[in-house]
Write a structure and sequence with these properties.
Layout: E1 6-8, E2 14-23, E3 29-36, E4 45-50, E5 63-64, H1 72-81
Parallel strand pairs: 1-5
Antiparallel strand pairs: 1-2, 2-3, 3-4
Length: 82
């Protein structure tokens, strides 16, 4: 049900869509893959966001992540360093 849901940054701006949801072998959600930015599939960035960083009250209303479109590159660099 989450695939296709809107992704919002911490300021409430719609910054992308949920592309995929990753599960462990027991069916627990591990992370959400979000397509951030771009236009008509051009210039977009796919980001794997750990489930602990995602908040949502109702999937039909989308999800909220702790960084905005302008901070995606910083997040990717930080995640790669871990």
């Amino acid at each position: 049900e989450m695939v296709g849901a809107d992704v919002y940054g911490p300021d409430g701006d719609d910054i992308g869509d949920v592309e995929n949801v990753l599960f462990d072998m027991d069916g627990n959600v591990l992370s959400v893959v979000a397509e951030i930015g771009g236009f008509l599939e051009l210039g977009d960035t796919h980001v794997n966001i750990p489930w602990e960083m995602v908040s949502a009250e109702d999937w039909s209303d989308g999800i909220v992540i702790p960084f905005g479109e302008d901070e995606v590159d910083d997040y990717i660099a930080d995640a790669a360093a871990v």
